[in-house]
Amino acid sequence: MRPESRASGGIKFELIASSQAPYSKARRLPPLPLQRREKQRNRKRSSLTHEQILEKLKRAEQRRKQQEEERLSKITSKERIDEVLNVGVQLTKEKREKHNEKMDATIKSREKHLQDLQSKLRAQEERAERVRERKKSLNRVATIPEDQEVVDRFHWCFGEEEKAC
Predict the structure, then answer these.
(1) Secondary element (H or E) of residue 161
(2) Tens-place pLDDT, residues 92-121
(3) Backbone phi, psi, residue 104, to 5°
(4) Which of 26, 105, 108, 132 qualifies as a FRET site for 38, CA 20 to 30 Å off?
C-alpha cells in the first residue's frame, strides 16, 4: 500500500512505511545508545573465560605502569622547564643590569655636558661683565670736563649723521 501525497509545490511523491518493506533501500536510524550498550554487555559476559580475564588484568596493569611512567616523565620535563625558566630569569636580570649601567653612563655624560655648558655660560657672562666694566670706566674717563671736547668730536665724527671729519 503506497499512499500518495502532494507537496506544496505541486510535486507528487510516494511514502512507504518501513514495516511494509523490510528490505527497502531507505536508511534506518541507528539503535538507541542504551540498546547498544546492553547488547555489548551481553556479548562480553557470555564469551569471557578465566584466561581472558587474567589477560585483561595484565593489560590493565601494564597501562597503569605506562601512565605512571608518563607522569614521572612529565614531572622531569617540568623540572627541565623550571631550569629553563630560571635561566631565562637570570638572562633578564643581566639585561636589566646592563640597561641600568648604560642609563647611568648616559646620565653621567649628560650631566657632564650640562656642567660644561654652564661653565662656558659663566665664562661668557664674566667676559661680558668685564666688557661692561670697561665701558663704564671709559664713560667715567670721558665725563671729565677736559676730555669732554674729545668725546664731542668723537660723537660729531662717528655719530648718527656720519659726517666726514
Answers:
(1) none
(2) 999 999 999 999 999 999 999 999 999 999
(3) -60, -45
(4) 26
Helix 50-142 and helix 148-158: axis angle, to 10°?
120
Report residue 37 as a C-alpha cell: 550498550
Q: Where are the domains of the chain?
A: 36-158
Assign 3-class secondary structure to 10-75: CCEEECCCCCCCCCCCCCCCCCCHHHHHHHHHHHHHHHCCHHHHHHHHHHHHHHHHHHHHHHHHHH
Given the C-alpha cell 605512571, which residue does it identify?
A: 68
7 pLDDT exceeds 70?
Answer: no
**Placement of cell 608518563 in the chain:** 70
pTM: 0.35
> Residue 151 class from Cβ within 10 Å (0-12 exposed, 13-18 middle, 19+ buried)?
middle
DSSP string of 93-106, one letter each residue? HHHHHHHHHHHHHH
In percent, how much of the chain has pLDDT > 90? 36
At position 108, the amino acid (one-letter code) is K
